[in-house]
Amino acid sequence: MTVTSVDAAGLGRRRAVGLVAPALILVTAFLVVPAVWTVYLGMTDYRLTGIQAANPQFVGLENFRAAIVDPDFRNSLWLTLLFVLGSAIIGQTVAGFALAWTLRSVPRLVRGGVEALVLLAWILPSSIVAFLWVAYLSGDGGTLNAVLQTTGTEWLLEHPMASIIVFNTWRGTAFSMLLFSAALGAVPPSQLESARLAGAGTFAQLRDVVLPHIRGHVLTNTLLISLWTFNDFSPYLLTAGGPNHASETLPVFIYNKALYGGQLGYGSAISFIMLLINLIIALFYVRLLRERR
Fold first, then answer.
1. Domain limits of the chain?
2. DSSP one-letter code for 55
3. CB-CB neighbours of 232 under 10 Å
4. Bridge partners, 58 (sequence order)
5. Would the pLDDT of 82 be above 80?
6. For the chain, what is the radius of gyration of the CA atoms?
7. What is the pTM of this model?
């Protein structure tokens, strides 16, 4: 290798480092440093007020051990998994695909109107959407009670988990619909037509023609909405985790412990556990994507 080629290679490496350096700085500043700080806080008895606020003590893994044996934490973890399964994996995926599949064969004007309505639910601020749903589910003059003629039923108190699952499905379906609409556009129409001519029904077409083409999109969509739903704080705006912890998902549980209850050390430990669970979920889906390829 000549001196000129060595210099060129060194220059290329320096340029590559220069290109990725801003991204590395941002990742370090907004991801690595907060994660390390969270781990440190999780190993202390730091609180918002009192002696521990001025002079927190190092307690090692005590907060993590306390979280594992805490029945309220285990309840919140179970409710979070139920929330993800019901509103993301089943609700948003099924509703998003059903809309995308149905809108393929409707007039353009109808398709545009439906897509606009679904997108509106997605882009509105969480506080506004939550207010509308509180009014919709209210037992005193709520819209749902007026439609079903069940005056006096407090849906958010009597069925809190079902309420926030339906709420999150309604609010987040737009992303799945858009992703599946793009994916279905790549399915060769000739293959669908051949399947129809061969006598294949809708289910057979979806199983044998559509799913093999969009499997990667399905996994990507499920990964993203699972992580978003797992970390979603919007249920707090509807139920605040109540009644009696019946809808207290992990983000709400952390808020109640760390900020409302002042236990920042304990809340940080649970946040780190939540981060590890997110990593496990992401690695699971990434492995499925690699197997598909």
1. 3-42, 71-292
2. S
3. 24
4. 44
5. yes
6. 24
7. 0.88
